[in-house]
Amino acid sequence: MIQSQGPSNCTLTYMAQVDPRGSLPKWVVNKSSHFLAPHAMKKISKACLKYAEWKQRHSPNFKPWLYPEQTTLPTIPLSELSIQHAESLENIDESSLAETPEREDSD
């Protein structure tokens, strides 16, 4: 989420929820998030610095986030949407598992 903090300032918030449903050990998910999130933030930051110039060359008046009538994507009827509650999802308890240090494969 990018929030304006003035004409030349913004706050960038990056949130991620990862649930590989037990197919990866928790330590792998945690370790990768320490690398992937900062890397993604750096790329987003660089792109933001160049956005104004880029947008002037690429459909400068096309802003469907401001003008919904410009949206070309199909809409989904509300009747087709449903709410999924967390308690209905599969719950895999890994709290008793110990984290193991990284090791190289023996293959």
Automatic annotation (TrEMBL):
Which Gene3D superfamilies does UniProt cross-reference here?
A: 3.30.530.20
- UniProt domain START: residue ranges: 1-53
Entries under SUPFAM superfamilies matching the protein: Bet v1-like
What InterPro entries is this protein classified in? START-like_dom_sf (IPR023393), START_lipid-bd_dom (IPR002913), START_lipid_transfer (IPR051213)
Region described as Disordered: 87-107
State a single Pfam family of this protein. START
Coiled-coil stretches are none
Mind telling me which residue stretches traverse the membrane in this protein?
A: none
Which PANTHER family does the protein's record reference?
A: PHOSPHATIDYLCHOLINE TRANSFER PROTEIN (PTHR19308), START DOMAIN-CONTAINING PROTEIN 10 (PTHR19308:SF7)
Return the protein name: START domain-containing protein 10
Which gene underlies this protein?
STARD10_1
